[in-house]
Amino acid sequence: MEQTQVFNQLFVGGDLSGIQKFLYNISSKKAAVSLKGRSYYLRQLIENVCADIKQTAESNGAKTVDVIYSSGGKFYLLTDNTPQIVQAVESCAKQVKQKLWEEHKGQLGLNISHVAFRENSDGTVDCQDASNQKPGYLWKIANADFAHQKSQKFKDLLTSDYQEFFEPIAVGGKPKVCAVTGVESPDCVKMSAGERDEEMFVLPSVRQQIQLGEELRQQEAFKTFKDYAGSSNLGILRMDVDGLGKRFITGFDSIIQYKAFSKRLVDFFEVETKKIQQEATFKPYLNIIYAGGDDLFVVGRWDKVIDFAERIRQETEKRFGNEGITISGGIAIVQPKFPIAKAAELAGDAENAAKQFNNGEKNAFHMLGKTISWDKEFDYVKNFKQQFITLIRNYDLSKGILHKLMLYSSIADRNMLRRKEGKAEDFSYIWHISYYLTRFMKRYESNRTVCDFCRSLRDKEIDYRNGRKLELIALAARWAELELRINMNIN
């Protein structure tokens, strides 16, 4: 009781686990509307859980319930600390976990953490095990508790209903398999004629998500993936803010600062990104499937998706750059009929590569198999991409130069592997590039623009002592090659 009187506030955190796997675990059937529906479903789910906790606290005597953050599968709130409120919050969390299990059979789970504390006049907090800590200490405790709970998934359900987990489930006759998730279940329901293109069975929760997606499609003039790609390829983009967890733990001196920053972050990812998507430059070509917390998942025509990623980076820099906030991301480029779950996985791999860039400095973008920094390198590559396109379209530059630069860069790339294997490095690309560009200059000596461009490549841009610039120029060549194909198909 003494602790309740001293530590008069309760910090409650919620973490919805399994979001990534749940979001992308779909087949190609109804993929576009399923993804959109699942995204909306997840956003509503965490909002509803947060609202349930808030209402539970209020109905058990809480005079104040202050939601600091609710987005991206997480929420944090402050309320009064009493035994009744603590017990009610725990009971509510248990009910939500049970409901999630019944509906999703382990695909989604909920972790709830609560910490009793007191806020001091200088903005620091006192907890049971520490005093005069920055408020980020509360987030640190909550995140550690989330990690611990994830290592003991469904512990409460296991102890209360062993049979549900481990006894065999008899399914008679021909088993029903969900056409979207591939999950075998006797609960699968047949989609009605108005909801399907062919006979198919889905889980009840999947049907709900498809219906949500169909409603959103009608509201937003939502298209299929093939519609967005047109005659080109599809781009799958995943992005998130770098080091946000560390920022929450160490970056603020008061809870008020946390709340202000959280609001700006949520407004940007849930509101501003969608405003950008609605601009004429992007609206016909891409759609935001998921935007919450600090995450983005975007699908559309690959070149427009790259432009969108650049725009998001610029807006992030404008709004949060003076606070040291950066964003990294990666794009997978695939054919429109490529399995969306696999494409999302490839985009996740690309995003992870960006996060590992330059020994974990991040602030990077991964595209076409290469990771580049947003600072200087992206603009450098984009500038050369545009020069290649302009010279090929308007000055009769042969597209063969693109393939040669990519070829010589691949030789340089293989030298890293040769060094690891203890083999002699192949430096033939150095004189091959010099010879090839010299020949090009003679071929185009009457074309001053092309000749000067080739001379600049040979004598200034390509650093033969350091293969990075060649790598970047080759990436620009690959980007230009793909972009030229789009225009050929459109024309």
Beta-strand fraction estimate? 15-25%
Placed side by side, the strands forming the largest sheet appear as 9-10-8-11-12-13
The residue ranges in which pLDDT falls below 50 over 5 or more consecutive positions are 1-5
**What structural class is derived from the secondary structure elements?**
alpha+beta
Helical amount:
55-70%
User: What is the assembly state of the chains in this entry?
Assistant: single chain
Shape: globular
The number of helices is 19
Gyration radius from CA atoms, angstroms: 27 Å
Number of strands: 13
- Give the distance, in angstroms, between the N- and C-terminal Cα atoms: 77 Å
Biggest sheet details: 6 strands, mixed
Indicate the mean pLDDT. 86
Describe this structure in words.
By secondary structure, this protein is an alpha+beta fold. The chain is built from 19 helices and 13 strands. Strands 9-10-8-11-12-13 form a six-stranded mixed beta sheet. It has a five-stranded antiparallel beta sheet with strand order 2-3-1-4-5, with helices on both faces. A hairpin with a 2-residue loop joins strand 12 (364-367) and strand 13. The N and C termini lie far apart (77 Å).
